[in-house]
Amino acid sequence: MSSWGNCIRLSIFGESHGNGIGAVIDGLPAGEMIDTEALLLQMGRRAPGKDKAATPRLEKDLPEILSGMLGDRTTGAPLCAIIRNTNTRSQDYGEMMTRPRPAHADYAGYIRYNGFNDIRGGGHFSARLTAPIVFAGAVCRQILERRGIMVAAHIASVGDIRDERFNGTDISPELMKRLSTSTFGLIDQTREQQMRALIEECRLSGDSIGGTIECAVTGLSAGIGSPMFYGIENVISSLIFGIPAVKGIEFGSGFDGSALRGSENNDEFYYDGDTVKTRTNNHGGILGGISSGMPVIFRTAMKPTPSIAREQKTVDIKEKKDALLSIKGRHDPCIVVRAVPVIESAAAIAITELLKEAGKL
Amino acid sequence: MSSWGNCIRLSIFGESHGNGIGAVIDGLPAGEMIDTEALLLQMGRRAPGKDKAATPRLEKDLPEILSGMLGDRTTGAPLCAIIRNTNTRSQDYGEMMTRPRPAHADYAGYIRYNGFNDIRGGGHFSARLTAPIVFAGAVCRQILERRGIMVAAHIASVGDIRDERFNGTDISPELMKRLSTSTFGLIDQTREQQMRALIEECRLSGDSIGGTIECAVTGLSAGIGSPMFYGIENVISSLIFGIPAVKGIEFGSGFDGSALRGSENNDEFYYDGDTVKTRTNNHGGILGGISSGMPVIFRTAMKPTPSIAREQKTVDIKEKKDALLSIKGRHDPCIVVRAVPVIESAAAIAITELLKEAGKL
Amino acid sequence: MSSWGNCIRLSIFGESHGNGIGAVIDGLPAGEMIDTEALLLQMGRRAPGKDKAATPRLEKDLPEILSGMLGDRTTGAPLCAIIRNTNTRSQDYGEMMTRPRPAHADYAGYIRYNGFNDIRGGGHFSARLTAPIVFAGAVCRQILERRGIMVAAHIASVGDIRDERFNGTDISPELMKRLSTSTFGLIDQTREQQMRALIEECRLSGDSIGGTIECAVTGLSAGIGSPMFYGIENVISSLIFGIPAVKGIEFGSGFDGSALRGSENNDEFYYDGDTVKTRTNNHGGILGGISSGMPVIFRTAMKPTPSIAREQKTVDIKEKKDALLSIKGRHDPCIVVRAVPVIESAAAIAITELLKEAGKL
Amino acid sequence: MSSWGNCIRLSIFGESHGNGIGAVIDGLPAGEMIDTEALLLQMGRRAPGKDKAATPRLEKDLPEILSGMLGDRTTGAPLCAIIRNTNTRSQDYGEMMTRPRPAHADYAGYIRYNGFNDIRGGGHFSARLTAPIVFAGAVCRQILERRGIMVAAHIASVGDIRDERFNGTDISPELMKRLSTSTFGLIDQTREQQMRALIEECRLSGDSIGGTIECAVTGLSAGIGSPMFYGIENVISSLIFGIPAVKGIEFGSGFDGSALRGSENNDEFYYDGDTVKTRTNNHGGILGGISSGMPVIFRTAMKPTPSIAREQKTVDIKEKKDALLSIKGRHDPCIVVRAVPVIESAAAIAITELLKEAGKL
Q: Other C-beta atoms within 10 Å of C215: how many?
């Protein structure tokens, strides 16, 4: 299913080489002003061709809003935006019909859909489908910002080169602003050169590299979310795993915290004026599924781009024998760079859902 | 929300010190034989008091089935089981009314429910609520086993002491059987002593320790799950984060894989007779959200038990000032041990949901 | 599926002759005071044995609350109540195993569940399952009343004997109060004798009789509900058809209105002080799925009780031949009388869901 | 919410005078051949301007499929179709901004959306939004027909002029075929002239007229659907009330049946060869929410078109006083005629959902 949500209903559609892709977002409040420039800025951060570290394909990816807006405001009716597919070179994908690409959805999708799925460019599995997620996220983000909530992410690592982590108890609005408008977002910008060098090295060697993204949500008041299956972790992760290449997620101290003792990992409460805060933020702003008022922080693991130029071993499902495959076409050597705004967008959509459930929207 | 699922609807209810807890499972196929001994064995693996590494409280935790079974078979109507609360010592929890325990849901829950939530024993946030999850999982597990699908987990680490990982391309039914009936499940059983020593050390020092759990699902055929928001990762994680203390999840090579190159992380396909397999299993049995036919493998990060005997700093929300807190009561120094069957159960429920959606149940 | 709802999640479980029946209600606001006497009064209105027009079975039907309440207030966690099954005479149902009762769910259920469903007393299809609906409705009703919203229904007809209809533009709180606490609710109480006589005549002749129920919701402000699939009509009817024997529903002028001209059926707006009202209420308080501020009014058609004493023709599904059937046991000759509080309850639950979705709860 | 469904997810978007309208259908099986001619035939039955009894507006209403199809087959990915809005005369709607049309959603929508909804042409409440429903229904219909299931409806009444009803125990495929391709579907075609005369009379007098539609589903095997809240009645009605002007629905003998005795309304079972059938079909093919194998039959009440040429009393919500309103623009004097394929479509979508839930798709 490519539809999601309870209070906010998101429906993503489209295939890489079909007529178009898009999103329907139902349940948005009416009367919200949506700034088109800010929308396009977010779309642009994800769009290919903007950055040497990403694929050289040129897409315009300009969304057309079909419904749900009147002038610059939401009407409360479902907001649908579509993006036309252009500049597709379907001939690049011929061999895949019978030879599934390692680490891609080709084989699993073939079985799931009895061979009827559109496999050109990855079809509905294509990373191109993250464009409507960014669109939906850009809409939600503006609604959140009006309520003092900011969402921003940065490249936490590329291969073994790491950025600093968020200081979970002190994240400035300036940092959030900078990261959420950047195309190569880092807390410590001096790491950019090293990361780019590694990515370029992978590209030149016909290889790819994975990485991690760290995302923060600031300004979320305490008491949002619910226990068990509607906690902030559940809601965010149910969306995040819809993003291609994500293979892991951790909140707060996450996997590192699992090696600690309670006396180390527990975050002490204190009063900062009238506000209850914690001195550390190993809980990632979430306790029992519910916001504590501290920044929500999570990290996602992105696997290396599966499409690599090197010849790989695979099978031929028509001839039912082992085979070799050389993937042609243009592919990001490191999907992490362009995935940053996608992760932010998923977080923004999730928080919007949670706020609406809490009756705060 | 403590209800979950689309094709299988799970509703968990109860509070630690209320009259009882339980689960309703709707959408199960009719005519499934459910072995009570096997149910109780699973309940027993989670129950406290069985193992020195866990809390010494004695609970019977015997579920009473109110509906959905006739004799030893499911009727197809909602299956409801309840477990009475007994042996509760509410007086242990007095101080918490005003002084939220660090790393617990007390404070977030207080804000969320305007102070009306039942906080005795953690109320609805209590780890005791995992008992109905294990019940539901034990039912689903039997339905899955009848179809050749096994679910088993082991303690992957306690603090910095690690078990071996599953060999993702070769997991024997014997290992699955052993782990899924064990109360201290390890692949390499020689690590048990070390882990127990560490847990005991933490207990004696009034502290606690976190850990990780690795879970495998074998026998799942290729083609189960869907792209985007109904992938196996999404469905499993939406349940897993309902388990107290889980702060992270990763599938296949997960976070480690994010540091690799595509040429290292991609799993090559090959024919093993008529069956398509992969030579490695970095994808954790899931590609594009859909099963590949290889074992599904994931790891979860469990934070150290927040309740520790040592005095901690917190706030007094009535007096609105900083305060100290000493938690009384009996608590697991390492929740990981008893969480193993809970993780398995969540996986079993998730796979049952996915199978039903695929029309295979 | 016996689970329902989006913002409020209702899960109904149980079978007529199993261990017990009950309901889980998730998503209720915390801190709501629930008056037990008022709860039991509503349960009593539905309970059999209270009225000669209904079945002489004696059930206590006393619900036990397992969770979600602390003292007399909701905690915000799922509220679960169970009712034990007692006084069941399963031997009355032997013949039905092979000979499905006409107009009952026996045959359809047999096919649906491959013969594994519990058919004693109708199993999960039993009208007894309306007891937890009344429980849930009684809880919701109190939450609504605190916000000025009242729900009441009356017997609109038994066979061809009709009560007056609600005056859709003027329904007094006194009438609402009287009807919502009555066990034989009529606007024009002089019709009671006639209706009772008809029911008694049917009983004596081993027959049964159908009827209609009209329900009103007053005090609902304008602007609740949504277009298309989440309108008030959709939400109410999705619950109402869960009540056994309901075969139709109409809002406002309903089927009668479909024979009218626009100039007759359109309700003119006017200002009553600052409030927009309509001079007539053919729209039943709902326009475009959304409340207009006028009373919500709907009628449901209840078929005659299928269980009649007379010998009926049916089939023997074991012997695969036509057969005769005499239904033993004690059955309501007119289910309409006891269904009144069930209809009210469904309406109360639906309105609670809609209010929560609108952020008003 | 304008999204619907559990196994099949339908999302309808658009506003009458916005850029476009459309539907996303998620969860369809892959590999289903969809005949475009048959699709357009169904779209044409609903389209205005085809029949004198309907509005003279000319719309092309040609859907463009953006995704989910490859050649003439479904891919299994979400199927999205859009329809551009053209030929809109927004100036006709100026007065409505402040003067809500009686019996329209204008006032309720204004309150619901704080005045931000797009009211031109009814916005998202417009009957034009039934076009995507017909599109989705036309897709589902082809999937059903391939499995022997047919859906057809006829005009059961216009004002007080009535067509025959379906013979619930004997509906020929020829009749189903004729009705499901007709633009003025009647069982007894001799009634057409009378009905048209009444509609024309209403049109000439600046008035409108309501009516009823009866729909049948044949070929549905026994055992589809579930008790309580997922019965066929619940699922169908949850969709049907999404169609503008529907104010009532009844299954089988419905409201008439509520005046009968059990001995009259009960349908006796018998064996027709190996098949269990009923001699009458007062149950409308549904028992306990589950199909009996007999035709599913229901009727809907459609109110008269609210837009009438005559001057009507209303309020001016800006000036906060009573006011007069003359509705300009072109409107159907009887919406029933064009609503027939919409009702069929809703039924087809509902049955597709139910089949998928039952694992039969």
A: 26
